[in-house]
Amino acid sequence: QILNEVFTEFDTLVDRYGVEKIKTIGDAYMVIGKGNVDEVARLALDMIDAMHAYCRCHNYPLDIRAGMHVGPTIAGVIGLKRFLYDVWGDAVNTASRMESTGQAGRIQVSKAVRQALVGSFDFEPRGSIMIKGKGAMPTWFLLGPKQASEPDSAQVDTCMASETVGADQRRLAA
Hints:
Elements: H1 2-17, E1 20-25, E2 28-32, H2 37-58, E3 65-70, E4 74-78, E5 84-88, H3 90-100, E6 107-109, H4 111-117, E7 121-131, E8 135-145, E9 168-173
Parallel strand pairs: 3-6
Antiparallel strand pairs: 1-2, 2-9, 3-9, 4-5, 6-8, 7-8
Helix pairs in contact: 1-2
């Protein structure tokens, strides 16, 4: 029942931000963006807040980890029976690793996500994390939207500007 209540709240948030829920796997909740990384970032922040609110209301100690990555993906329907729409690709795997190596109550993001959001969101550097199949990757925690009065002091690496960024994929896990 708890998982149903939490996922029902997440479904409401997904509709608000216009992103697409792909599936739930156990206690994991996977969504993809439709080209706007900002919306997925705001969704992730609201999911963390919704989880905290649920815990306060029910006096129940739960927390979630969230991970985000952006990159090309492939989507489609598989199987002959019980059709399942799914999304595949390196971006899916990287987003999953961002979640699994993250910290409870935080949103860990890749360099590609940070670059996409650097002017409008604040980040806390986490440092390099060993990512299965990738090696050491620099990661950050997404803190929230920049306040209008905050100057943009973040440095953007120009070497990433030429990388191809296609369909957005993030995995948010509870």
